[in-house]
Fold this protein.
Amino acid sequence: MYNLLNDLSIIEVSSFVASPTAGLYCAQMGAEVIRVDHTAGGLDYNRYMLTSQGRSLSWENLNRAKKSVALDLQSGEGRELCVELAAKTGQCITNLPERSFLAHAAMAARRADMISLRIMGWHDGRQAMDFTVNAAAGYPLMCGPEDWDPATAPPVNQVLPAWDFITGAYSAFAMLAALHHRGRTGEGSEVRVPLGNVAIGTLANSGTMAEMLYRGADRERLGNAIWGAFGRDFRSRDGSRFMVAALTPKQWNGLVKAFGVDAGIAALEAELGVRFADGDTPRFQHRAALFALFQQAADGFDYADLAARLAAEGCTFERYRTAHEAANDAELVAGNPLFGPSPANPSGFAYPATRSFANLPGREAGDPAPAPYLGQHSEEVLAERLGLSSGAIGKLVDAGTVALSDKNR
Amino acid sequence: MYNLLNDLSIIEVSSFVASPTAGLYCAQMGAEVIRVDHTAGGLDYNRYMLTSQGRSLSWENLNRAKKSVALDLQSGEGRELCVELAAKTGQCITNLPERSFLAHAAMAARRADMISLRIMGWHDGRQAMDFTVNAAAGYPLMCGPEDWDPATAPPVNQVLPAWDFITGAYSAFAMLAALHHRGRTGEGSEVRVPLGNVAIGTLANSGTMAEMLYRGADRERLGNAIWGAFGRDFRSRDGSRFMVAALTPKQWNGLVKAFGVDAGIAALEAELGVRFADGDTPRFQHRAALFALFQQAADGFDYADLAARLAAEGCTFERYRTAHEAANDAELVAGNPLFGPSPANPSGFAYPATRSFANLPGREAGDPAPAPYLGQHSEEVLAERLGLSSGAIGKLVDAGTVALSDKNR
């Protein structure tokens, strides 16, 4: 854990993926992130996959390095404590609706310079999830094999909840932008980040929306090929599938050499009257002929040999792994300083844990911290942040308004 | 454009998607982002799609609201100007390799508190792209129709370069975290964000890596169904495809009511001895039976009628659009305050342009700004930031070290 944010404390009232991700990134940069949940756990507390003891592996990864306070958020008293914690802290990340007890106005009424970051579904308040905004934004109907009939091709959902993760990272950014502004001006901010905006806005920012409008029609289906450049999956003689991409002159020249297709390229160039070294355009336009040539060459190599040749030329390529293979891949995990030793996870299951995606040469990265047990820090946080005595906390626990660690549940 | 970052200036030496995205998000929050490119344009200056005049719609969307300085980055003098601009400015976003003229050490030698944010391929310096890290992380072999034979199923690449966009947002966050730290301590930072870390780290943060290790095997292929909860694509009587998800009790109850499957659910519960209202687990475990029941119900509705029922119950659902449909969808674009009027784009083509994903009630959002012409701000920036006289700049232009606006190229 780096110390870039170690003077910062954030209250997170969260569930599912995007909102906990925003808190996770801040925590992994040193912030104190206090997740406040309902005493029975948030809506995501039992998200798949569960261990045989019923601990969620999803929850314990998305909430790594945070503290946990458990309050009865269905009661007025628990809600009051939650709002007070947010206001005393000064910054809050949440995905509760604006029309909930945790409205920005409720927090700002107690603290004029409050910063709230609210992740929403659509901008107008309608509910949305990664899978539904994805359907709206057009990507699932662009994915899948090239030879599917466009008239009947089904959508292909992406298993990665990409919009959740982009939204989480963007929200961490927007929270720090609001803090930057408050540092200069003293002003608080209400910041709303709709998941739907991230999806349709990315369609626009990538240029894809302009492309559709300019063409006046959808893009042809490309299967696994890269749009507008040279790249696709290929298969080696021994059946390994791998992705190859060449966008720069260096990447292209390396690829031609590694595959040993110089003569074939020259013949194609003569036949077609183009020079493939000229850039993306001829390589993309004549991709069918190029793909056939490269696949034919790949048929002559076992993967290990071809991979060695590609590596020697500095090419950009990667073998497709299953997720289980990736999880056990020494190069990706054990040999990658992103991962540290397993902390004592709530599940009791030990496995490599992430540090922050960013690495800062010369700074101490530290070892990854575990997710908390639900309610593990209720006493500590209520005492330190709200000044409650142990007697007062004991009464709140007896009344069911506050819950302590569920370690021995 | 919001003003949260309007005291901040950033030099961006960038290409492709992740790195320009980091700058874009900062620019849309009010930062001055000065993209420095080679005089002929960066490696991404001609990225598809191109207009008939050869302007890249990709470039003009990813570089919206930035300034542009064009220098001969293959010459010593041009590189010197670029390093000096970065050092004078104090913060730099780049995807150039560490072993390039723009090494952190080169900038920090001129300014001890320099902050550099470098987007890399893999953590060890190997090149990577969105498509290749995606292949490594396991997602393409999890996507695609449920009925494909796992032994022969091909990978399915996602058309959305999700890792680029997550990396871009994360990098904007990490840049602000380093600024926050410098504000408190005066210390600069070298921040490296490898695209590969974002991919394999997200596999871990989502809990999917732990899931694979805990199970000791890959997850079964789910097609378009949501892992661990109730959700899938369905089809209406009149052929519309739509995605539906129900994770919370409220979402589930609404869905049952909107589809009118109360009786079918009760019969299934009696037959199976479960209560679907209990949570994700029974709904996921018996998804095949539930999907059949819901699809049968969907066969009885035209989409407009079913959508009205779903909306009335506050369900989470969305019709699949093609990207061209999405681009022309009034609800998603014209009626969405995310989008503003078209600025004067370099392409001359007019279309809706994004503001920041975040909206801040009570603050002026302003209208979207266009991308610059290449070199449009060379004179202004060299004069203001480096104090060069117009005579000195004229000589640099004559020598080909500096290029001015390519508006009339």
